[in-house]
Amino acid sequence: MHSGNGDTRSPRRLAGRLIALLGGPARARVIAILAGVLALNSANAGTIGAVANQLENDLHINHGELGLLSGVSAGVGALISLPVGVLADRTIRVRVLVVTIAIWSASMLAAGLATSYLSLLLAQIALGAALAAAGPAVASLVGDLFPPTERARAYGWILSGELLGAGFGLLVGGDVAAALSWRYAFFLLALASLGLAAAVWRWMPEPRRGGTSWIPHDAPTIPLAGNDQPPAGDEPATGDHGDGRVTAIIGQAGITPVDTRVLRQPARELPLWRSVWYLLSIPTNRILIFASAVGYFFFAGLRTFVVIFIQRQFHISQTVLSGLVPIVGLGALTGVILGGRLTDTALRHGAIAARVTAPAIGFGAASLLFAPGLLSSTLWIAIPLFTAGAAALASANPPLDAARLDIVPGGLWGRAESVRTVLRLVAEAAAPPTFGFIADTLGGGTNRAAGLRDAFLIMLIPLLVNGALSLATRRTYPADVATAARCDR
After folding, report:
1. Which DSSP state fits 474?
2. How many other β-carbons are positioned within 10 Å of the β-carbon of residue 472?
3. Residue 199, class by beta-carbon neighbours within 10 Å (0-12 exposed, 13-18 middle, 19+ buried)?
4. What confidence tens digit (pLDDT) does each residue in 293-311 have?
5. I need a surface site. Which of 141, 190, 219, 486 has the fewest CB within 10 A?
6. Number of alpha helices (DSSP H) and beta strands (DSSP E) in the chain
7. What is the mean pLDDT of residues 150-154?
């Protein structure tokens, strides 16, 4: 009897601790929903990689064509990202998410029903058009739901959805494809998308803009406006670009705004072309956009070809691979959570540039850890290196995303994410074909594992350079934060 009660209480106790760790019931619900959005966003790409062998055999395609299949949705998303960013800044973001997730579901269903490479490619094009809406809407919602000094930590939990989704696609998608068919992997994602759309509509009300909807710690409910609240009724900005502590730290260091970039009109009223010009005029933003794109470029190539590479390099089965993926995934998950948590702590202790220094360290460490793992011929040496490398690479994203919100006026958060998304999606679209082409060129014949290894090694070079470039923002970040704060007054 005692054991039974203990077994019943243990899951509840674990759930309670997790909710407390996330900041209370209201924060936990929001984080879970937004993480779910990013999870399904990346699960499709993970599934493409997981069923790569089946697709190549069934549809008679090579690495380059597989890379195009994975990259085309990102390319289409890049084309429509900017208009979607305007929607995120001026319309009800929750409705945008619900509609686009429903389109994801239809596109994934079409992918599962595809009878040729062309029909599967067309389904991926439709999917790309829908996926482009997720990033700007999520970024804008995070800015209006979490205080500035806690955004990197919140982003760490939310971005864990990307990793869980990619892992779900690689692990579950691969197992489903092996047991049934690659088609059922897409059917499963289509069903999950419908459930997510319902959850977003039911439990994710639209927040007011300008800092009046931040969720307090341990809050049971969210102080929001509701899904029917028109965006024109938003409250004025707080005038402090946050909870006061970020700008206070900047102010105590004697950092002043850049007067030539202080906006003379409400940021959300800027036309699209002028807002894009303004966003690209922010020095820190330009470098962070580039840094993010390079990181996602490598990640896109990795998630597309890692299954094929590991299986061919180390000659292991799908069953063994299924046991290894969670190990590497746990490393990445640890990195993304700690990356946000530690940088927020450092910022609160006065480390002004923590949010731009941490990504530089993460990118550099990732490149130095992946290289020996790729060169190793022993699986049990390579896996710990891949796990540590994944943790370092993942740790860069939460502080990067939080830093972009710091340096941009609140009325431009959606468009800022769209500008970033354009280059990110171009990078994600280019990465799989590029990796595939290099692998086919260098591997040739029967030595296809060596071709993939060499492709990964070559692409580690820009990742290492990216870490050095990120350090350059230490000089510009404080002034850009102060300028954004002045714009929001």
Report:
1. G
2. 15
3. middle
4. 888 888 878 777 877 788 8
5. 219
6. 19, 0
7. 88
pLDDT of residue 237: 41
Domain presence at residue 174: yes
* Mean pLDDT on 25-37: 88
Token readout for 451 is: 């071709």
In this structure, which amino acid lies at residue 244?
Answer: G
Q: Is residue 212 part of a domain?
A: no
Looking at the 3D structure of the chain, how many domains does it have?
Answer: 1
Going by C-beta distance under 8 Å and a sequence separation of 6 or more, which residues neighbour residue 288? 356, 400, 403, 404, 407, 420, 470, 473
Does residue 252 fall inside a structural domain? no
Q: Is 271 left (phi over 0), alpha (psi -120 to 50) or beta?
A: beta
Cα-Cα-Cα-Cα torsion 94, 90, 41, 420, nearest 10 degrees, comes to -150
Task: Judge whether 118 lies within some domain.
Answer: yes
- Tokens found for residue 317: 């089965």
DSSP 3-state helix, strand, coil percentages of the chain (rounded to 5)? Answer: 80, 0, 20
In order of 31, 295, 345, 400, the CA distances from 359 in angstroms are: 22, 10, 15, 7
SS3 451: helix
d(CA 321, CA 326): 9
For 391-424, the pLDDT digits (tens) are 998 898 899 888 888 888 888 888 888 888 888 8
CA distance 69 to 74: 10
Q: Model confidence at 271, in pLDDT bands (50, 70, 90)?
A: confident
Q: Which domain holds residue 384?
A: 23-205+264-487
Cα distance between residue 52 and residue 58, in whole Å = 10
- Reading the block at residue 179, the tokens are 């047991």
The domain spanning residue 344 has which CATH number?
A: 1.20.1250.20
| DSSP states along 288-323 | HHHHHHHHHHHHHHHHHHHHHHHHHHHT--HHHHHH
pTM (two decimals): 0.76
